[in-house]
Amino acid sequence: MTQIFGLGNAIVDVEVHVKDSFLADQGLPKGQMTLVDSKQVSALTAALDGSTMQRCSGGSAANTIFAAQGFGLQTSYTCKVADDINGRYFLEEMGAAGIGLNPSCLSSEAGVSSGQCLVMISDDAERTMCTDLGISASLAATDLDEQAIAAAEVFYVEGYLSSSPNGTEAAEVARAIAQTSQVQTAVSLSDISMVTIFKDNLQRILGNGVHSLFCNEEEALAWANTDRLDVAISELKDIAREVFVTVGARGSIVVDEHGRRQESPGLAVTPIDTNGAGDIYAGACLAARCQGADPFNAAKFANHAAAHLITQYGARLKTLQAYAELKHAFA
After folding, report:
1. Dihedrals φ, ψ of 100, to 5°?
2. Over the stretch 200-223, which tens digit does the pLDDT of each residue have?
3. What CATH number is associated with residue 119?
4. Rounded (5°) CA angle 29-216-261
5. What residues make up the domain containing 153?
6. b vs e for 138-174, b when ≥16 Cβ sit within 10 Å of the residue's Cβ?
7. pTM above 0.85, yes or no
8. Residue 159's closest CA among 185, 134, 177?
9. Collapsing DSSP states into helix, strand and coil, what is residue 225?
10. CB 254 within 8 A of CB 261
């Protein structure tokens, strides 16, 4: 039985270290995600010629589902990849972890490419991303397995789908199926660019409300168009029964379904790469909730997981066993 049904982009991350001057020269907003096409990715890669690059499977919701699987849940993921090196790499890694994939995930369409993201890591561990969605942009409602959604405990979707008309529609349809089947829906706002550029689509995905909402401080403030976090959280609480707002090294702020608010302190670590911190936070939190933890204790575990991840490179831990060991270390 699937405990979490995930929906999102299938992306292969290519990580590289850069100086802030490179970002400035390329006109890239530091710390944000920018949607680009394959030609722009190729141009950036050419400008970084000679730099050491590392490939790993990614995609925000995919990272969250991978973490939840590693923390002991049974999960599935609906996505779209092309029949190329990146697509096969992504499917092999997800399949090896035991994550169920939709039968239509591998496209047979000619002349298309899998999604990829160039993750540029600054000296302060901040990550700036340029994402080419590739075939992921064609992810549609027809790729959904209605029975699988209806049988899950939680339906989880990334806000990045709001950048695609097809993705937005798929998320809307999946949320409606989940709501009809009394399956809890969890949504991540994903990135400030989604909030500032695609808020209308995000509102469509959120519909008349969800069970759990994940975001960081910057996204929360942008959503409410305020500089006061308490005001932003109050507005988000109108959307979700449980709200989880990450606040960097300070940890996270949680508001449960009864309106009780609690700050969950972060761990003192030296960050190397913050890519994927929010993703593993959501995965750890959802795993803990499904395994019986209350929202506040789930947030403590999520802070622990995120703090551990950012002390190494990559948006995921190196092995599935590493997630189990991280969970054991927390207990």
Report:
1. -70, 135
2. 999 999 999 999 999 999 999 999
3. 3.40.1190.20
4. 160
5. 4-330
6. bbbbebbbeebbeebbbbbbbbbbbbbebbbbbbbbb
7. yes
8. 185
9. coil
10. yes
